[in-house]
Amino acid sequence: MPSLDDVTRPPGRPPRILYGGDWNPEQWPEETWTEDVRLMRRAGVTSVTLGVFSWARIEPSPGKREFDWLDRLMDLTHTHGIGVVLATPTSSPPPWMGRLHPETLPRDEDGRTEWWGSRQHFSHSSEVYRQYAASITEDLAARYAGHPALTMWHINNEYCTYDWGDEAARTFRRWLQDRYGTLDALNTAWGTDFWSQRYGDWAEVLPPRRAHYLKNPAHVLDFRRYTSDQLLACYRAERDIVRRHTPDLPVTTNFMPFWSGQDGWTWAAEEDLVSVDVYPDPRDPGSAAYNAMIGDLTRSQAGGGPWMVMEQAAGAVNWRGVNHPKPYGLNRLWALQAIAHGADAVCYFQWRQSRQGAEKFHSGMLGHAGERGRVFQETVRIGEDLARLGPRVAGSRVTTGIAVLHDWNSWWAGDQEGALSRRVDHAEIVGAWHRALWDAHLPASFAHPHHDLGCHRLVLVPHLYLLDDTAIDNLVAYVRGGGTLVCGFLTGIADQDDRVRPGGMDARLCELLGIDLLQEWWPLDEGEHVDCGTFRGTLWSEELIAAPGAETVAAYRGGELDGLPAVLRNGRARYLTTLPEPAALSRLLSAVAEEAGVRPVVDGLPADVEAVRRGDLLFLLRHGHDPVTVTLPGRHRDLLTGTEIAGALKLERYGVAVLEVSGAQVPEPADAGTREEHGPGARPVPEGRR
Ligand code: GLA
């Protein structure tokens, strides 16, 4: 399998970063297409994604095919040297499908139908839908397999649907039969003897529909696992069809960022290239750190190799309560931030802003203001920057010494109606820990709890409520092997069936973390804090007795937990029974990182200046409004401006510098940590032809 760049780069040209976006030209008269490609060339666009929502155009009535317009577009892009990421249009079936085959429409938890008139109104379990999807994918792939513009496949779009309908009930039962074999095993796994839920016949097992009171959490957990697997089966079916026609082209599907609906590790392993859509709020001061986290997670899902921003917005989106544009420079900053975190492609939704339809107020690379508009001017500027960086950046890797563990199964299990605190949110806690690292200028990667962790100096477990035996053994082996581990509260409370471990926490973990007895959980209200001596804890606290030999690094002061451990240390393993306030968490993790031999990429950086080392380049990104000066040892050349930097570097508002550095002057994080590599569950962007 070739790398992204291998297939998208014209022969004889140096490596480059893919740049472009979704192009939905069926909205426009054909004269506009010619204008579009002219402007794309001006902006340095190298790739467009066609066909994402084109099903009704290609198949206006059942079985009919209209490809002529798409033929002309494929030829046009090729003539202008622009590659095509061709999407299967299966995320938005034409209205005729719902009318003729109502069973293709999904049902919500209350049994209500999701009708056509928007998009993504397909039941992942509908045989009819799957047959139509396979058929159009087959014809699309057969028609364009040899087309010179075709560089890559994009399957469906942001798989994210749920279905509680009758056909889903049948496939849910089949999925459960595969998992458990017998109804007895299912009854045991779900603990159905509580509340008289015991099933006597498979026909009684339903998706977790609207019910009177709390649902069985193990049932809901399996429904989420099943939904992820059902959608994955839809993806696989289409992927296998396109692979048959074009075995040399990479296949992807665009993830929503840090989205709970799909098990991202399992999905990523099924893709040739991992891609994600990222839409941070330009007004949110946390957006830069959020982008960094999405970049780190996506790169890690790609096994540490290059990944792709499939979509972002050049300006405002139109789905928040209030939608703010990006001030000039912010689009460029975030595009280059993605590159710093390992992306080899920066693309947008969408090329030309729509004049009609649901997203006419959503920005495009070419906005309503047109060629003279500042959004387009920035589009051109980003194209120039990417062209400069491509030959030096494409294909290179980001190295980190820290791994943050994350698992969708644990997210799903922890997110249950009967939890002790609705305020405990997996994504927020993971975000808080990653943010604490980001604030300390410590680059990090993500890993699954089953991955080989030995290559990381420091492993963090912000919130893995569910840990199976393999994961627990992996953590124990990691620390025994010399690794440094920090676990957050509620680590490993439940097994794979969401059954609370005997004693409230697994005995192997208690031993590892230095816990003698876990007495009670004491969740905290909004605005409530616990005094931990040198810092304040939020969200949660725990009443536990330390095992002999474990050190209470910080203790609660006052209240019911007075004197009990807030932070417990047992050798190289630590356990946090609360969530320290942001600055304290950042200090704590920095101190542990230093002890583990992991240092910031650059020392003494001002706040809101991010430093990321990618290959032999150092990206410095100014996430703030005022200019700042950064002091660096030695002399460096800025690839973006071609200027020599000696000593001090001034970064303007939203400024970026990409410096060539020698290892001695700015140490590669690998000096202090190790290159990230994952075990099973993720795989790198393949490099050779399949
Ligand atoms: C998603 C979709 C796009 C578009 C954008 C708008 O990412 O994939 O089609 O709707 O949202 O932000």
From TrEMBL:
CDD domains in alphabetical order: A4_beta-galactosidase_middle_domain
Domain Beta-galactosidase trimerisation: 402-598
Any one GO molecular-function label of the UniProt entry: beta-galactosidase activity
Compositionally biased tracts (Basic and acidic residues): 673-690
Residue ranges occupied by any Glycoside hydrolase family 42 N-terminal domain in the UniProt entry: 22-388
Catalytic reaction(s) noted: Hydrolysis of terminal non-reducing beta-D-galactose residues in beta-D-galactosides
Region named Disordered: 666-690
Domain of life: Bacteria
Beta-galactosidase C-terminal domain span: 608-660
Keyword vocabulary terms for this entry: Glycosidase, Hydrolase
InterPro entries: Beta_galactosidase_C, Beta_galactosidase_Trimer, Class_I_gatase-like, GH, Glyco_hydro_42, Glyco_hydro_42_N, Glyco_hydro_b
EC number: 3.2.1.23
Pfam families linked to this entry: Glyco_hydro_42, Glyco_hydro_42C, Glyco_hydro_42M
Protein family (similarity comment): Belongs to the glycosyl hydrolase 42 family.
Protein name: Beta-galactosidase
